[in-house]
């Protein structure tokens, strides 16, 4: 029998929710005894109390990570054994998919079908893929002649702090954890305060898979406390951060103020989607544009939030888009029919509504949505919203809204579109729709973004790198390139005597 809203609500009521930190292989309260409420965005109800870790807890977690790293229980384990344990973890994630998906939806409000069919399977795939890489990456020998040996080895950096956001809580965490663990590091993970539940459960599954104590620690807590303490910690060797550009900049400062730890940033975006006059399939492009901004309530770093339409196709395109906006009205996140769920919390909802106001104030023309929805639910919902007649200087075209709000801009020449697309301090992703292969390539090469889609949107694979140009960040998640962030290169020169 397929699941229904009622059957999900029954199962959710029976979930055992863990809110304590996970340090050195066991759940512990924050030393201060402080907690913060975990509020479900679908209903506005408190569903758990979560340990509010601060600098003291971070010290304990970093010390556990350091001990485990220095002991070699993980860092010196044979590649085959590390692979076996991470593959087991991937299996356990799939075995516990239903529970993890419900925790994710309860915690951050995304539709249960997305948690079940997108997030959690991708998390399992991420661990399996990096596990498989472990015994396939070779070190190097430099071409320095017969009387010398110059070896170039990749060594784990040591203790990695992973600090992640709330929009894809477990997936963003796994993009850091899987490559960092695969190459032999110990990790302290700080999930976002809005969405700590799946990370806490993952830590237990990792122990069950055989990950030694102290190799993966999870410290839930506020950014200004737990996050800052990790950023400033002198015994953290590297930070893998995903979040806003604003906080990304803070992590670079923390590094400079402490031990010059390596900092890798996956930050915000303002993705342009360009539809050229000769787009061969307006239906597909309109569907992709709608999902590109309304999927995950628009809380996606690469959300296609600026739609650049050629004036000749604008009218039919907007009609199709408005049709999608109607179909994607927000619903209860636990209803399997829901395509758009709740905004993560009241603060974020108010922020998005504030941007909608700014759109009105600056003269953009509202053609869909624009209001809070499901106000009787107690939760935080916003209608799929589209503004036409936007110009690229307006605030809604410049700042990352991180909600279901689309800005439509118009152009007449391809070069004009490319110029507008690049006129942003972000550079995470971009898309272009055209059937002219020359125009497609030329545009793709001219767009200043880490990821470019041609005649599609938000497609990718764990084998392809993801990350941004400009203020969208540095370094890449996914693909073998992700492992480069968590290793240091060591060169050993051996003189061979005749
Ligand atoms: P955020 O920057 O507010 O928070 C991210 C993490 O940093 C959280 O764990 C938070 O607790 C912590 N933090 C917050 N303030 C801090 C401080 N002063 N010191 C140390 N740590 C602090 O971001 P968010 O609101 O959780 O997530 C949304 C942002 O994430 C958006 O900008 C989005 O574009 C970005 N994002 C980027 C990618 C990517 O791959 N490029 C992916 C997902 C999300």
Structural account:
With 498 residues, this protein is an alpha/beta fold. The protein folds into 2 domains: 5-267, 3-Layer(aba) Sandwich (Aldehyde Dehydrogenase, Chain A, domain 1); 272-459, Aldehyde Dehydrogenase, Chain A, domain 2, CATH 3.40.309. It is 40% helix and 21% strand. The protein is built from 16 helices and 24 strands. It has helices at residues 5-13, 55-71, 79-95, 97-108, 112-133, 169-182, 197-209, 223-232, 245-257, 282-294, 314-327, 346-361, 395-398, 414-422, 437-446, 481-484, and strands at residues 21-23, 26-28, 35-40, 45-51, 140-141, 148-156, 159-163, 186-190, 216-218, 238-242, 262-266, 272-275, 306-310, 365-368, 372-373, 381-382, 385-388, 405-411, 426-427, 429-433, 451-454, 469-470, 473-474, 487-495. The chain has a 7-stranded mixed β-sheet with strand order 14-17-18-13-12-20-21, sandwiched between helices. Strands 9-8-7-10-11-23 form a 6-stranded mixed β-sheet, sandwiched between helices. Strands 5-6-24 form a 3-stranded antiparallel β-sheet, with no helix packed on it. β8 (186-190), α7 and β9 form a beta-alpha-beta unit. α3 runs antiparallel to α5, α3 (79-95) crosses α7 and α10 (282-294) crosses α11 (314-327). The radius of gyration is 23 Å and the shape is globular. The site of nicotinamide-adenine-dinucleotide has 30 residues, from α8 and α9.
């Amino acid at each position: 029998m397929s699941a229904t809203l009622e059957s999900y609500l029954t199962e959710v009521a029976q979930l055992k929710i863990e809110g304590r930190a996970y340090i050195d292989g066991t759940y512990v309260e924050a030393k201060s005894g402080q907690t913060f409420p975990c509020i479900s965005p679908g209903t506005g109800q408190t569903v758990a109390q979560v340990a509010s870790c601060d600098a003291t807890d971070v010290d304990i977690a970093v010390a556990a990570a350091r001990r485990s790293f220095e002991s070699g229980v993980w860092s010196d384990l044979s590649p085959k054994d590390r692979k076996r344990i991470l593959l087991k973890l991937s299996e356990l994630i799939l075995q516990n998919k239903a529970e993890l998906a419900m925790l994710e939806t309860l915690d951050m409000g995304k539709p249960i079908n997305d948690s079940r069919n997108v997030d959690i399977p991708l998390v399992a795939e991420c661990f399996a893929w990096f596990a498989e890489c472990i015994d396939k990456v070779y070190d190097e020998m430099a071409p320095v002649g017969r009387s010398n040996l110059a070896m170039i080895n990749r060594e784990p950096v040591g203790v990695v702090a992973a600090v992640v956001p709330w929009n894809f809580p477990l997936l963003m965490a796994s993009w850091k954890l899987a490559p960092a663990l695969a190459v032999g590091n110990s990790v302290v993970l700080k999930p976002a305060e809005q969405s700590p539940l799946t990370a806490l459960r993952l830590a237990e599954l990792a122990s069950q898979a055989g990950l030694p104590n102290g190799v993966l620690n999870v410290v839930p807590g506020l950014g200004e406390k737990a996050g800052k303490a990790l950023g400033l910690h002198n015994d953290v060797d590297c930070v893998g951060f995903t979040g806003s550009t604003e906080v990304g900049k803070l992590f670079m400062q923390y590094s400079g103020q402490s031990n010059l730890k390596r900092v890798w940033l996956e930050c915000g975006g303002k993705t342009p989607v360009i539809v050229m006059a000769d787009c061969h399939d307006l239906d597909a492009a309109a569907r992709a544009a709608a999902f590109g901004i309304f999927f995950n309530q628009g809380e996606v770093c690469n959300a296609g939030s600026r739609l650049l339409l050629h004036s000749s196709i604008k009218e039919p395109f907007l009609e199709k888009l408005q049709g999608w906006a109607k179909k994607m009205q927000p619903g209860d996140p636990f209803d399997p029919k829901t395509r758009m769920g709740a905004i993560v919390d009241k603060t974020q909802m108010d922020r998005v509504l504030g941007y909608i106001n700014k759109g009105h104030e600056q003269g953009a023309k509202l053609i869909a949505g624009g209001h809070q929805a499901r106000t009787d639910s107690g939760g935080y919902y916003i209608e799929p919203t589209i503004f036409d007649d936007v110009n690229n200087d307006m605030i809604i075209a410049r700042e990352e809204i991180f909600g279901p709000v689309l800005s439509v801009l118009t152009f007449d020449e391809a070069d004009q579109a490319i110029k507008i697309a690049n006129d942003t301090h972000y550079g995470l992703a971009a898309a272009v729709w055209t059937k002219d292969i020359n125009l497609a390539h030329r545009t793709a090469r001219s767009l200043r973004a880490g990821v470019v889609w041609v005649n599609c949107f938000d497609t990718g694979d764990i084998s392809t790198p993801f990350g941004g140009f400009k203020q969208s960040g540095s370094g890449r998640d996914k693909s073998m390139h992700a492992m480069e962030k968590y290793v240091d290169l060591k060169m050993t020169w051996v003189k061979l005597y005749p």
